[in-house]
Amino acid sequence: MQKSKKVVILGHFGVGKTSLIRRFVSNQFSDQYKVTIGVHISKKVVDLSDEDSVSLILWDLEGTDRLEQIREAYLLGTHGVIFVFDINRPSTFQNLKRDLETVKSKVQDRPTVVIGNKKDLVPEEEISSLLEEHDIPYDYLTSAKTGETVEEAFLHLASILHHDS
């Protein structure tokens, strides 16, 4: 049985939301930066078992440094959230806990997966100390460029959404 689930992808400008979606949906990456204006919608069907699948309707929302200004209409009917920050840009995670509280208040505590993207830009030995030093709550560290852990993050949320309904 296939279920459709709306997932909004949120985060600051330039953290790689669109690149993560492109990597997940079509296994592609582009170095060309294009600003998302408003919302861009993509879809991917994820097979969870021989009998069960989830159709993820991915809403790529424009980046903003002020999450409280997200248009409420974009969030209506949201089943899950992917929140993305750039582990190479402290301004995108310095207020991460507050940002996540804002998001949760807007989507009634829907399941949320927190992704630290652009892992390929930070030396491996610096990542742990960076995350620990800033006490960053995250679920996955990804690289849209290399594809590392992208599929796992999206599949994790798909599985949660499937079992929650």
Largest sheet: 6 strands, mixed
- CATH 4th-level superfamily: P-loop containing nucleotide triphosphate hydrolases
Percent of residues in beta strands? 25-35%
- Average pLDDT number: 91
Q: For the record, what CATH class applies? A: Alpha Beta
Give the number of domains. Answer: 1
Could you tell me the CATH topology label.
Answer: Rossmann fold
Order of adjacent strands in the largest pleated sheet: 2-3-1-4-5-6
CATH architecture: 3-Layer(aba) Sandwich
Order of helices and strands: EHEEHEHEHEH
The tally of beta strands, per DSSP, is 6
Structural class: alpha/beta
Stretches with pLDDT under 50, minimum 5 residues: none
> How much is the radius of gyration in Å?
15 Å
DSSP summary: helix tally:
5
What can you see in these coordinates?
It is built from 5 helices and 6 strands, in the order βαββαβαβαβα. By secondary structure, the chain is α/β, with parallel strands linked by helices. It has one domain: P-loop containing nucleotide triphosphate hydrolases (Rossmann fold), CATH 3.40.50. It has a 6-stranded mixed beta sheet with strand order 2-3-1-4-5-6, sandwiched between helices. The longest helix has 15 residues, at 150-164. The protein is globular.
What characteristics describe this protein?
165 residues, alpha/beta, Rossmann fold
Summarize the structure.
This protein is of the alpha/beta class and about 160 residues long.
